[in-house]
Specification:
single chain, 166 residues, alpha+beta, four-stranded antiparallel β-sheet, globular
Length: 166
């Protein structure tokens, strides 16, 4: 019986540690800006995102693990999100971005890849749509063309919860 209770507690703790949550909710001591940030969530293979809100202005922070390939993205490039209701949300990159090299070790294993980080301003109408509808497919434009991925039902549910945190 003790083992069953211990297993249940560990399972609950593990599932809650991977949930979407607010990781920062503070007021900047120098500027007085209200800052709120969510945890990162997987969109699809290689794609992750979080949301940062500064003084009621939400920005989607996205990252793409390009493996051994360096990607670049011009300011104004599109990130398209196809929703379950077949509507498309188009976001535009706020700045020119180039992949950065990431290298770290886990035990004896060395992990390295190129990570492209981008930022997208979320308009109120877009945010309302993203809070009400699950994302089914994403298309991420780079200077080399676009990368498209399907979003699993599990990840689309996590993304829906993420957008509803703010």
């Amino acid at each position: 019986m003790k083992k069953i209770i211990l297993f249940a507690l560990l399972a609950i703790a593990q599932s809650s540690s991977f949930g979407q949550k607010i990781v920062k909710n503070e007021v900047d001591a120098f500027t007085g800006s209200k800052i709120k940030e969510t945890s990162y969530v997987t969109i699809s293979d290689g794609f992750t995102c979080s949301i940062r809100v500064v003084n009621d202005t939400p920005v989607l922070m996205a990252g793409f693990n390009g493996g051994r390939k360096i990607h670049t993205m011009d300011k104004g490039e599109r990130f398209m999100l196809k929703l379950e209701n077949d509507s498309i949300v188009e976001l535009y990159n706020m700045e020119t971005s180039t992949s950065e090299y990431v290298d770290f070790s886990v035990g004896r294993t060395n992990i390295s890849y190129f990570l492209l980080k981008t930022k997208y301003l979320l308009q109120e109408e877009q945010l309302i749509n993203l809070k009400a509808n699950k994302i089914s497919v994403v298309r991420f434009y780079t200077t080399d063309g676009y990368i498209e991925r399907k979003v699993s039902k599990e990840n689309s549910g996590k993304l829906l919860k993420l957008f509803n945190l703010i």
